Description:
The protein is mostly helical. The chain has helices at about 20, 55-60, 85-95, 105-120, 130-135, 190-205, 215-220, 225-240, 245-250, 255-265, 270-280, 285-295, 300-305, 310-325, 330-335, 340-345, 350-365, 370-375, 380-390, 395-405, 405-415, 420-430, 435-445, 450-460, 465-475, 475-490, 510-515; strands spanning about 40-45, 50, 80. A three-stranded antiparallel beta sheet has the order 2-1-3. α10 runs antiparallel to α11. The chain is globular, with a radius of gyration of 26 Å.
Amino acid sequence: MGGNGKSRWKFLFPHRRNSRLQSNDPPKEFLCPVSGSLMADPVVVSSGQTFERVSAQVCRNLGFSPVLDDGSKPDFTTVIPNLAMKKTILHWCEKSGARNLQPPDYTSVESLVTALMEKEKPQGGIGDSSDRDLLEGVSDLPPVDFSHAATEYGHRPERFYTSSSEESVVVGGSPGPFTTRPACYYSFSSSSSETVENEALIQTLGPNSSISEDEKNFLTKLESPDVFQQEEGVVSLRKITKADENIRVSLCTPRILFSLHRLIKSRYPKVQINAVASLVNLSLEKPNKLKIARSGLVPDLIDVLKGGHSEAQEHAAGALFSLALEDENRMAIGVLGALPPLLYALRSESERTRDDSALCLYNLTMIQSNRVKLVKLGAVTNLLSMVKSRNSTNRLLLILCNMAVCQEGRSAMLDANAVELLVGMLREKELNSESTRENCVAALYALSYGSMRFKGLAKEAGAMEVLREIVERGSERAREKAKKILERMRTRGRFDEDDDDDDNPDGESSFERGGLSSTRYPIGGGRFPSSANTVPF
């Protein structure tokens, strides 16, 4: 018992290390706080600490939250892979001569945690508030609560390295009222360690989980080892979730999502595609969006987009678009590595895949971290080249408008001659819709913000004449922005010096007050009601 009244346990369980490691002990942060062993599969839990995945599973399944050395109590509700930590540990192992790093056995960790729980029970009726806090929430068969962590997302299967970026974060965001357009994913066969994880999840769901008769009927087929039964189950699920909103909400349960997670890995195309389409239908409802994301399905959607069947790729793009409409999902989707395959999908032969990938990127680029990632990926040049070829021009212009909101995006676009391209498109008068023309002007308006370079580039491209014509004949939205651009071009010295957003971490607030905010809102319930794959599959 420490002086501050809190009991603190130091986890010094023995762990195996070879003789070479004895003389070169790993850094403390490489060791799991529960098992004390070198982490083979580190994950970040909801409260921000890093644990071995198996340790987090055991603690979650047993409803146990130990007090760590710093006095904090971890929350194991959800986890995401800590890929940066894993890479660092593997690098250390190579330098130190460690070989065959494997996660600890589930049973052995369970024994350790059970022993810890026994030690932390109050003895002789003596106990204070710290003891009660330590035992708070412990139950034999706790239900899975997917609504607890508003800033975290579900675990990734053991294949997480195939589609994730090498970083992990504790995701934050504010909830927002968005509609959804989900889809599904494709993945590969599960490993033995994933099997342990799956069994643990089933135990966590447990007999105490409430289950409806409809859900039972579907689960009987979805969980069947017979492929024909699986196919019949996912086809029926797809049909019943196609039109009924209430059914979509009631059937988006942990058990159903877990079953779909397994069936999406099927090598039988019909099973896989219908499982993905069923997930798309479930994700149409707003309450289901976070639930699906927190169930760890985003990495699988990314895998589908990378290498699934063509129809499954269409659904995957739509699913990611749907999930990206939810504000709290955007950072996680970017962190998990969705941006590169989404960029690649913009050139897909499937129009549906192209369009939904573009709309997904538009929503993802509403946050600064994803905009910076795209700049580093060289996306600006690719986007401008596709705009020039008139390929999904309107949707791509929406992405570019978001990119131009931040300093990095503006610089990249100015370097790539975006001003000349956009002015040229307006001059040609061949844009296929008024909304495309408006977005073209909005992109120029974004580029003009706080940039001395823009003035010279715009004059060189002949923007003054084009913008004056828009002021005279354009739509109200286009006229408003064209006027402001002309005002900035006539200004001497630095543009908008007092309102520069370079110090704004999101690069949004002050700029949106300047007028671009009218074009920046989640698509799916506003300006383009029929532009995406909004119908159930």
